[in-house]
């Protein structure tokens, strides 16, 4: 795991939106879900899926596809068992709602559902609010498009949660995003 963490840290860098800080937050959230729900999971599968789920972003979109391709090749090269690799790849492909929906990817293990929830929870609340704007600035997305992203995707994430704990957290964090959007709208007049 230390080799994987070092690789991901070097490849993704320190970007707040999708860099190593995001990976560490998702890891913490994932284990919070496991603990609160009392889930029986394979720690190796979960940790590998979390740390490798966004590594394909350096290649482009669809990042879940490229992350899964990289993870599979990397884990084969390092002698990881096929059943672990299959679960990691599934979790990585499933974590992206748009990719999973477009390609009919279903979760084959609890680790896939945990990663999906954890990644989406990091897109909510104040952290998620900042991440959206950070990503927009990094990628030249305009202000109107950024605001639309909240209504088209971010505010809908809570409906995609798998676990009670995730849904409770998502509800609280979604309300924070709504509050922030309302305050922003009040300050700007009409967004």
Helical region count? Answer: 10
Strand content: under 5%
* Biggest pleated sheet: none
CATH topology: Hypothetical protein af1432
Number of beta strands? 0
Per the principal axes of the C-alpha atoms, what is the gross shape?
globular
Flag low-confidence runs.
Answer: none
**What's the CATH class, please?**
Mainly Alpha
- Using the CA coordinates, give the radius of gyration: 17 Å
Measured as a percent range, the helix fraction is over 70%
Q: Number of domains in the coordinates?
A: 1
CATH architecture: Orthogonal Bundle
Distance between the termini: 45 Å
Outline the structure in words.
Helix 5 (82-95) runs parallel beside helix 7 and helix 8 crosses helix 10. The radius of gyration is 17 Å and the shape is globular. It has 191 residues and is an all-alpha fold. The protein has helices spanning 2-12, 20-37, 43-52, 63-77, 82-95, 97-103, 110-121, 125-139, 143-152, 164-188.
Please supply descriptive tags for the structure shown above.
Hypothetical protein af1432, single chain, mainly alpha, 10 helices, 72% helix, 191 residues, globular
How are the SSEs ordered, and which strands pair?
Layout: H1 2-12, H2 20-37, H3 43-52, H4 63-77, H5 82-95, H6 97-103, H7 110-121, H8 125-139, H9 143-152, H10 164-188
């Amino acid at each position: 795991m230390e080799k994987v963490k070092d690789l991901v840290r070097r490849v993704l860098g320190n970007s707040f939106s999708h860099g190593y800080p995001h990976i560490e937050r998702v890891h913490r959230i994932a284990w919070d879900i496991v603990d609160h729900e009392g889930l029986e999971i394979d720690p190796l599968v979960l940790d590998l899926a979390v740390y490798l789920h966004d590594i394909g972003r350096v290649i482009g979109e669809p990042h879940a596809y490229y992350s899964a391709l990289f993870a599979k090749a990397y884990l084969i090269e390092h002698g990881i068992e096929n059943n672990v690799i299959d679960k990691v790849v599934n979790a990585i492909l499933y974590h992206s709602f748009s990719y999973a929906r477009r390609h009919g990817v279903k979760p084959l293990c609890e680790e896939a559902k945990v990663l999906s929830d954890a990644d989406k929870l990091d897109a909510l609340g104040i952290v998620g609010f900042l991440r959206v704007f950070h990503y927009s600035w990094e990628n030249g997305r305009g202000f109107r498009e950024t605001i639309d992203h909240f209504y088209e995707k971010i505010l809908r994430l809570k409906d995609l949660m798998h676990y009670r704990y995730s849904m409770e957290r998502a509800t609280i964090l979604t309300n924070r995003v709504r509050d922030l959007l309302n305050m922003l709208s009040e300050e700007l007049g009409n967004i």
